[in-house]
Design a protein that fits this description.
The protein has about 25 residues and is mostly helical. Helices cover about 90% and strands about 0% of the residues. The mean pLDDT is about 85.
Length: about 25
């Protein structure tokens, strides 16, 4: 449902953020 999608979005955002931070450094 919506909760699952929100969780997925948050997880993907965290992954992208981690990758972006790593790339930035």
């Amino acid at each position: 449902g919506a909760a699952f999608k929100k969780k997925e979005d948050t997880h993907r955002m965290a992954e992208a953020n981690k990758a972006f931070s790593h790339f930035k450094v």
